[in-house]
Amino acid sequence: MLVNTIAPLVLFAALCSTQQFATDKFPFSISDDELMNSFDWQLLKEFGPYNKNLLLSPISLKLVLSLLYQGSSSIVEKEFESTLNFRNKDENRRKYSQLLSTLLDNEKSGNLLTIGSSMFVDDNLHVLPKFNRTAWQNFRTIVEPVDFDKPEEASKVINRWVELLTRGKVPKIVSADDLQQTIMLVTNIIYFKGIWKHPFPKINSYRGHFVTVPDNNDRMIMSKYVDYMKTTRNFWYYEDQDLEAKILRLDYKGNSHSMYIILPNSLGGINSLIKKISLTSVLNMKFKLQEELVEVHMPKINFKFSTKFVNILKKLGLKQLFQNTNSLTGIVETNNTIRRQLVVSNIIQKTGIQVDEKGTEAYSVTEIIVGNKMGENKMIFNASHPFLFFIEGPNNTVLFVGKYEDPYEDEGAESGNRWNTNEEADDATSQVYPAPQYNTQRFSNNQGNLPTNRFDVPNQPPQQNPVFDSSISSNMDDSYDPPNAEDIAYRFNLFDVELLSTFSDSKTNVLISPASIKTTLAMILEGAGGKCALEIQEALRIQSLNQRGVRDIVLNLLSNLNEKATTNTYLESRNGIFASNRHKLVDAYRETVIRYYNANVRSLDFSNPEAAANEINQWASDATHGVIKEVVSSQTINPETYVIISNALYFKGKWKSRFDQRMTNPNKCFRTANGCVPVSMMHISDNFYNNYISRISSYVVDIPYQDKFSMLLILPSIESSVRAVLRDFATHRLNDILAMLNNSEIVLEIPKFSFEYTVDLAMRLKQEPLNVREVFGANANLSGIIQNANAMVNSMLHKTKIEVDEQGTVAAAATNAMIIPLMQPLTITADQLIEPELRLIFLNTLYFKGKWKTVFQQIPEPKCFQTTPDTCIPTDMMSVTQTFNISYVTSLQAQFVEVPYQEKYSMLVIIPTPETNVKQVLRNLPFYSLDKIIGGLNETKINLEIPKFTLDYSVDLVKYLSRNSIGIKEIFGTNANLSGIIHGNVSVNNLLHKTRMEVDEQGSIAAASTSAAIVPFALPVQIKANRPFAFIIFDRETKNVIFEGIVQNPAKQGSGGSGGRANRPPSVSSGANLVQGASGSPTSGASEAYPPATPSKNEPDYAINTSPSNRQQINLSGMFKNQRLTPVRAAIGSRFAYNYNYESKYFYTYNGAKLVH
């Protein structure tokens, strides 16, 4: 592994008059008593608490200050000696001369360390021979005369030197404008390129959490997904009790350079570590290092840092250097007047570091790669929360020291000032200005800060792509804050998975392009208003943004959909607006779609449908490179059409690891609902990111294309189905799924397939949870598209095609929204009631019995149970003192306690604080995943008291399932299609649910009338996609979904969906994730008999029993009065009150329901 480090440091000095100029008050204070022996660490202590990511080069700063020390006199000379522990000038020259010789003697190590300094002096000044000789002989500094009166030529000389020294990494440091009135510029650059002593293959890298915000109890509140490197081998390692931290040494080749990582023991311990650390403590830790077998988890690092040192150095005691006190008399030959005007105005340093497996090309780079060594006791070093690091050379010389806290902060600047770097400024600079020509406008900005030059500019947002420049709009908000890139990917990803979930009932192959659909919706949104626009924004999850924020999100998508083609990947998106020649587009809309969407606007005669269809089809064929030749026909074009809004998308990608065509089996079984279908099955054995995700009961494999795209293969387990998986997939972020994948070698088999798909998206977009309805109805508001016309979207035809073979994938999509005049809705009046008849009853039961792992003791006297803040009822309580997993979630205002049963089940008790109530907690609970809550539990010894209770609960689930949050409506209405169950027009009249639960000192007994058990699956060595599966093609960097689909039968070359209501499968669905509440005190008893089950002799301490032979008796007299019933078991599942399986992480809500196949 390679490590490159460049730390440019440039010193600014100016010829100043005696006038004093105000500077910002520096907020830092000095807290360490060992200042003269710990300058490097004092810098870290001063800067560390105020910056998330930090990188300093103490040696670079000290070298430049030492050079100025040699030219100093009087008071400033004494300040140098006291602040930096310089004994005298002779000793200083000897020390740094030896140090540079040692540092630069690295040819045998295989590492490259270049340290160079140069002083550019105006050719009208004469440098003293003694200083010139000292600069070269002792500090390797070249003194070079330049003509600053010709700043263009001077800047070229300086930049050429910097580019040469940094091996081309920094081609430019100054511009001609920066050198106006300059008479001297001093620079220092450090470039380090190191090779790790133990390079490791990249195979161990993975994605994981990096904690950025812990809570007061040192538990994770917020984290970010980052790339990790991992290895297990012998390292020098030590755990320091005083600092409460671990230290790890990673050596480069030659053993002369090392990187040290200091990791605090607690998640939030970084600032405490900075306060405690000192030169003494670091030397103590290094002395106690021992060689241990360590498993190292290290995040890749990539960030830049810029800071100013003036105020810090003043605080440390170096003051006269920055005042006009005739302190630099030993540099140039001149009179006292000029000497008094030589003053250093600023010292600026810019650094950068990158850590990955291959090495870097930035300012400062560190890289670690890890392997695997089994069979020995090992220490764990998991750098998954903020830490310190430093790179050390010979003689304990600290080349770089830094802090890593935020993985997504790629550039930082010192807090407490407004200094910010320009991207072209790859090195820091110091300049000297003559006071008589001093221009106050040059040195002050509108905040009164000093100085103002090319480095001191306000924070500017990144420039937009010229094609998609969103900077001019009459109704934009001037105080606009650009949306967060991570939020953009998350919001758009929700639309992608929710859209795919609406196709879960499809029995044919499905292929849709969310990217194409979102682009088309965005162009409609530009001209929509009122509720019509709000529904589209809510579906896209962008309703909280203003117009500019919405457009920035869309333009970010468009920018990613127009990647430059390479030899391996091609992605292109085109937009078209086909307007009627009899109607006029709104001028602002025409300008918007051309300017921001790069749309091709054409005028067509829709009264001639055949000619119009030919022109649109030719445009689509050109845009998709001939993959899709026809998107509309003369029959689908309404002669009254106002406008057709179109998007076409084309993708071509080659596999990163190609399938060997010789390994393809042309006649292998692909299991469908109707049996085996012979297909051509491709075969490969290679490393892929993969895992079995129990939450969606599927195997997931990331199959990368070359460049940055991937196909995500989602293969349901044998017990599951595509339909069930897609319904559950809608509740998961794509990023969360990707983070669960691990890189390992697998045998992968997937079929070759090629098919086309056509669908009218109108029906899909109207469904829950998208609810885009207004734009397709009589109340549509599209007044911003067509002048003086009331319009609605009549249809949104979406046509796609995909081909997958051993080489890669070719896919294309076209989306066309047809806008026509509004029409009055048809009104139907029902003049008689429908009298329902009972035809069939489905019944299913579940029984659970569990014994506590630790038995409770009954408290002799009843204790108070508060049903309301003012009401207390006596209740039998049970108590136990034991170690339990507990946590307190501040945002929920609730305490969580896991009470385990014997074997593998637990009860999760959720106790609201007195300030809140159960209703409020449960309302917010769906926003937290069970994994997150369980993962936050910590073992704590407590005394736990809970009441003994017996609960009976009955409810008709119809009204709960019909709510928008669940959306099961049609099955209960006149449009229900249950033709697969019984002949005739029937609907579900009610869905009655009855439960009972008993909790006492021994454990719990619970039963319900709807249930099924779910068994998690183990990850096999081989993964074969030989049954229906889903897939997603997405951008690995931005997580934009390009294509997603379902393969039900790869042998079919063409199949399509009508977009209408599909036939329901022959089963009754009771829904998922229902949340409902029960009233009554914990001591309320049953109003009717409920005989418990009698377990068999061999029954275990827990039982889930749904088999016909062991079906438990449930008194249904309250549900079906005086009716003769024949129970029929159906595939209807249920989840129970606050119980969960802590192996599979299934959450049993007291009154939820879930369909299980």
Automatic annotation (TrEMBL):
It comes from Phyllotreta striolata (Striped flea beetle). Residues 1-18 form the signal peptide. One of its GO terms (cellular component) is extracellular space. This is Serpin domain-containing protein. The keyword Transmembrane does not apply. GO terms for molecular function: serine-type endopeptidase inhibitor activity. Residues 417-452, 467-476, 1066-1086 have a biased composition (Polar residues). InterPro entries: Serpin_dom, Serpin_fam, Serpin_sf, Serpin_sf_1, Serpin_sf_2. Belongs to the serpin family. It comes from the Eukaryota. The keyword Lyase does not apply. Residues 41-407, 497-1050 form the Serpin domain. Keywords: Protease inhibitor, Serine protease inhibitor, Signal. Residues 409-476, 1051-1109 are annotated as: Disordered.
